[in-house]
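As a representative case, the lines below give one protein's residues and C-alpha cells.
***
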Amino acid sequence: MDPATFLADVPLFEGLASTELASIARHAVSREVVRNAVLLREGERPSSLYIVQTGMVRVLVSDEQGRELVLSELGPRAIFGELALIDGEPRSATVVAMEPTLLTVLSRNAFTVCLGEQPEIAIQLLRHLSRRMRELTGNLKEFALLDVQGRLCRLLLRLAKDRDGARVVGPVTQQELANRVGASREMVSRVLTGWRNESLISMRGKYITVGDGLADLIRLGDRQPLSR
C-alpha cells in the first residue's frame, strides 16, 4: 500500500490533505520485525513514534522480579511511543511484537517537523491522548473495584470473537491471561477450571469458548470474590 494512503486511515492524521500526508510519508520509514522482537524498552530514552501497519504488538510493564502486567494489545493503525516523544522522558512501558509485524516509524525530529508543518496533527494527538487516558481510567477502575474473577470475566468478554456461531478467545495461554489481569497463572487456572465445571466456558488447548452465562457474572455482581 502507498504510504500516504495508509497514513490517511490512521486516526492521528485524519482530515489531512493528500499533499500533507505525502509530506509525512516522506519522513517515515518502514520496519519489519519478527515475533517476540522488543520494539521499545521501559526506561529507554525516546527516539521514534511507531504506527502498526500489519500485525500485533503487546504493551507491558514489569517489576524487578520479572513479573509482567500487560497494559494493552495494539493492531493495525494503532500508534505507540508517542508519550515519551512529546515530553522527552524515558519510555514508560515495553512493547513486544506478538507476531511478524510491519511498522511505520517516524523519528522524533521528523515528528517535530511534521507538527510544525501540519498543526492539525497536534489537535488529533490531544484527542488520541484523551482516548488513552479514558482507557487507563477504565483499567484502573477494574483493578480497584473488581477481584481476579471479575477482571478475568471482563477480559474474556472483550477478547471473544465470533467463530462459527460461538464466542471464542484465543489462541492465548493462561500465563498471558494472568499478565493481563494482574494475577498468578495458578489463580487464573483455578478460576477457569471453576467456570468450566459450571459450564460457563469450555477449553481446548489455547482456545476458550465463552458461554452466554459468563456475562451474568458481571451483571449479578453477587459472587464471593476468589482473590485479589
